[in-house]
């Protein structure tokens, strides 16, 4: 079973928040937004920085911002940064039909996670807008 760990889920949440709220976010406010302890968030952001997805700004009001546009960053990029490549296909089966099956599973998993942050932000803004009119 594929398992996306909590650290990766927080990473996606942090990156989504950076894309949604704009240019720059302090560590304290980002921690509050996604409800994660600051030391754990700093660890996560360090991995994202190392992967070239965010840049950090130092100082007492330091924080993070996306290094690329939200259109250029996918959920798959974020998961790879935290977990490395994951595949169902590992050469386990000696049967060709099963090898092909697992390869198709890999393709579909990657397709699902290959959503840009911008697409997710746009979907959230549509939901936010519709909530305003239904109150």
Describe the protein.
There is one protein chain. This protein is mostly helical. It has one domain (6-134): Arc Repressor Mutant, subunit A, CATH 1.10.10.10. The chain is 61% helix and 7% strand. It contains six helices and three strands, in the order H-E-H-H-E-E-H-H-H. It has helices at 6-21, 27-34, 38-50, 75-83, 96-113, 117-134; strands at residues 25-26, 54-57, 63-66. It has a three-stranded antiparallel beta sheet. Strand 2 (54-57) and strand 3 (63-66) form a beta hairpin. Helix 1 (6-21) crosses helix 2, helix 1 crosses helix 4 (75-83) and helix 1 (6-21) crosses helix 6. The longest helix has 18 residues, at 96-113. It is globular, with a radius of gyration of 17 Å. It starts with 5 loop residues before the first helix and ends with a helix. The mean pLDDT is 88.
The portion of residues assigned to helices is 55-70%
Number of domains: 1
The number of distinct helices, counting runs of at least 4 residues, comes to: 6
Spatial order of the strands in the main sheet?
Answer: 1-3-2
Query: Ranges with pLDDT <50 over ≥5 residues?
Result: none
Envelope shape: globular
Top keywords for this entry?
mainly alpha; 135 residues; three-stranded antiparallel sheet
Task: Please give a quick description of this structure.
It is built from six helices and three strands. It is mainly alpha-helical. The protein has a single domain (about 5-135), classed as Arc Repressor Mutant, subunit A (Orthogonal Bundle), CATH 1.10.10.
């Amino acid at each position: 079973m594929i398992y996306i760990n909590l650290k990766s889920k927080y990473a996606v949440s942090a990156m989504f928040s950076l894309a949604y709220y704009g240019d720059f976010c302090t560590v304290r406010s980002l921690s509050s937004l996604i409800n994660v302890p600051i030391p754990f968030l700093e660890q996560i952001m360090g991995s994202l920085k190392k992967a070239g997805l965010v840049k950090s700004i130092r100082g007492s009001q330091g924080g993070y911002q996306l290094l690329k546009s939200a259109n250029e960053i996918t959920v798959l990029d974020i998961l790879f940064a935290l977990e490395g490549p994951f595949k169902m296909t590992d050469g386990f089966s000696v049967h060709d039909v099963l090898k092909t099956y697992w390869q198709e599973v890999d393709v579909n998993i990657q397709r699902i996670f290959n959503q840009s942050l911008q697409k997710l932000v746009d979907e959230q803004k549509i939901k936010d807008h519709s909530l305003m009119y239904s109150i």
